[in-house]
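FIELD: query
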Amino acid sequence: MLETTWFVLWALLWAAYFVLDGFDLGMGALLPFLGKTETDRRIMYNAAGPFWDGNEVWLIAAGGVTFAAFPTAYALMFSALYAPLLILLFALIFRAVSFEFRGKVEHASWRSFWDGVHFLANLLPCLLLGVAFANLFMGIPVDAQGVYHGNLLKLLNPYGLAGGVFFLCMFTLHGAIWLAIKSRGQLQTRALAAATMLWPLMLALLVVFLIMTAFYTKLYANYLAMPALFALPLLALAGLLGARAMLRAGRLWLAWGCSALFIIGVTYFGVMGMYPGMIISSLDPAATVTAFNGSSSPLTLKIMLGVAVVMVPLVLIYQFWTYRIFSQPVTARELEDDHAY
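FIELD: result
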């Protein structure tokens, strides 16, 4: 029971990270396409400015829970996926640097350079997270001794690449809606146009990814065994359809909430399809690390659960307060503040 509880919480932490850091990653990946002027680009930086570093806390929490609750899965995950996770780490580092360094020198070439860094440092995580999780869904070549028999190129298989494109579109749609909330005028118009253009592409990719999942993975076995789980992909579809309806109605916060629901549904669709597997071996089913054979002791899981019950609500309350304080659109006047990027 404890193992299953922590498996569900593990999925929740990844879903929270995808929802919260997903919008600023997606918005950064849209920078060259929507930021037509210096003011536009600064608004895009400041639309993410108060949130991006706090959003990354959920990535640390997801990694920390993997380490503490499922140490065997953590060891294999960070060994088999070492290359993409290392690239992801450096991308997040350079993203942080781009926020701080861009405005240090008043020169167009300097700012253009850091805009390029910012774009790549947001684009790569979108792709890499999709590639990594698609490979986890499919299974990776790990033997009974925990040795990974592969390299980065093996991760760039058709299903892994499809996952990367899927995540990129999912995050850019989420980011475009967020930018529409945080901007006004022509920039908001372009953000809404981008969201409107990305929506049918996202729907098409969802259909393609679900079909490819049937051929490349065994996720549907859990769904056939437990039909109630089909509520998860239906939840994702409802979120995606709701996002389009709310965009048409001009209710942008609800559109973003529906987009978040879509991301949560997608995350749980994949993770619950793996259950109880966490690191599925494509070489030997007996070598698969599950929530049961890869977990910490029951005492450790009980202590962690007590800490989570106390601390997670506090973090959520703090983040809700932050989002409420900085909920207003970013205007050109606010860019004159010394604290603006």
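FIELD: remark
The domain at 2-336 is CATH 1.20.1630.10 (Formate dehydrogenase/DMSO reductase fold).
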